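Dear support,

I submitted the protein below through the web form. The confirmation email said the job was done, but the results page showed an empty box. After a refresh the structure appeared. I'm attaching both so you can tell me whether what I see now is the final result or a partial one.
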Amino acid sequence: MARLKQATITALGILLIPVCPNPGSAQLIGSNEVLEWQSPPPDHRISYGPGPQQFGNLRLPTGASPHPIVVFIHGGCWLSAFDIQHVGQTEVAITEAGYAVWSLEYRRLGDEGGGWPNTYLDVGQGIDHLRNIAEPYSLDLSRVVVAGHSAGGALALWAAARGKVDDQSVL
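What the results page shows now:
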């Protein structure tokens, strides 16, 4: 099991290398600058639930399929003020590296139904929805990684471990 965990961590690190700038050329930017970045619209916006925040942006790479998948979960302090819009450039960079990106929006504090436990349940439902869209979009369900930023990183860790959550848990 420890070898599997190490292999997973190594694979995720290798996956993210192409989208990370050379540290020597990196420049610090503020969150307001990130929020102003423009990115092309996703290839597809797909609902995974009935709520207005229950959708994912799907971006597909060029090249041979089926495509490996990065499930990306945005951050934003768990608050409704910060949504999926600020990760468009991250989605584009990952897609340009050859991966399909399934970037999840979810209910947050300030959204109707947002917060505990629905934020987590939305992420789980969004990830489970990959089964419904894999065939029509030529996605390879045997090659999936989950990543996130800030609150999205915490949700990604939960998502990776949710198969071990006790059956009696609300999650």
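Response: this is the final, complete result; the empty box was a page-load delay. The chain has one domain: 36-164.
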